[in-house]
Design brief:
globular; 9 helices; 268 residues; 54% helix; alpha+beta
Length: 268
């Protein structure tokens, strides 16, 4: 379970607050149970419509609790980064609640072909999740909502995720503040057929396109702030993360352009 700093501090100091969080997490899990079937239906329909065979590669579920006054997606970004490191390195480093299936030979070859895309993929997954969270509205006015998403990650890998968002208030703990609650259920599947149908594209072009997209996202954040779709805390948190992702992508792009691998291609 992820917690913002102030929530973690309260939980450490007050046993009653910790019990309150456990109760909220249980309630959130019960609400999210209905998303499991919807997610499985989305997975089945996606591969049936594409005419592709597929194999489960990675799955997990996470909950996040954030006070509106110190709302941040840092915990989610850290989890995604840890998954990325595990996928491209040591699977023993996976965060709690995340399980990876045994790699097949074709999965391993696909991952090897994406060795230079760890930053790209982790940033893309974060962008998908944060985009869904933004669509739920500002943390101060968050109401119950759910969303299903599927997004190709490249080389035959595809992300499926169900997100549930809600909020709660407790004058006994939060005074006039509210707490945002998010539940994520996700799976990553691999399909040889989807990989073969995706066009060849240079790694450098992927990063160039991602930088362009993230710069536009950063500009859109300001517009959402001005239109009250985001509150100032959300805006600052998201703007900081996108800035860091842009800087990381630019650094990776610069490294690729000066290396012999600058003309490499991958199946997308």
């Amino acid at each position: 379970m992820g917690r913002s700093r102030s929530i973690a501090e309260l939980a450490a100091k007050q046993a009653s607050f910790n019990e309150h969080l456990k109760k909220l997490e249980s309630q959130l899990s019960q609400k999210a149970a209905g998303n499991d079937k919807a997610l499985q239906d989305l997975i089945t329909d996606t591969y049936k419509n594409g005419g592709w065979n597929h194999q489960l590669y990675l799955k997990g579920r996470k909950t996040e609790f954030m006070m509106s006054s110190d709302w941040s997606l840092d915990n989610i970004k850290r989890t995604i980064d840890a998954i990325g490191k595990a996928v491209f390195g040591n699977s023993k480093d996976l965060p709690n609640g995340i399980n990876m299936e045994a790699e097949t030979e074709k999965m391993g070859a696909a991952i090897k072909g994406m060795a230079n895309l760890q930053i790209y993929m982790t940033s893309k997954v974060f962008d998908v999740l944060s985009g869904a969270i933004q669509s739920f509205g500002s943390s101060s006015s968050l109401t119950y909502n759910t969303q299903l998403i599927t997004e190709p990650l490249g080389n035959g890998f595809r992300l499926f995720v169900a997100i549930l968002a809600d909020s709660s208030k407790s004058t006994g703990f939060f005074n006039s503040d509210s707490m945002s609650e998010y539940a994520f259920v996700f799976e990553v599947h691999f399909s040889v057929q989807e990989a073969s149908q995706q066009a060849l594209i240079t790694i450098t072009k992927l990063y160039e396109d991602q930088i362009t997209a993230f710069v536009q996202k950063s500009e859109d954040l300001l517009s959402q702030l001005e239109n009250d779709r985001l509150d100032p805390v959300q805006y600052q948190s998201l703007a900081d993360v996108y800035r860091k992702m842009i800087e990381a992508a630019r650094a990776k792009l610069k490294a690729l352009e000066t290396s012999p691998q600058s003309h490499a291609v991958i199946s997308m």
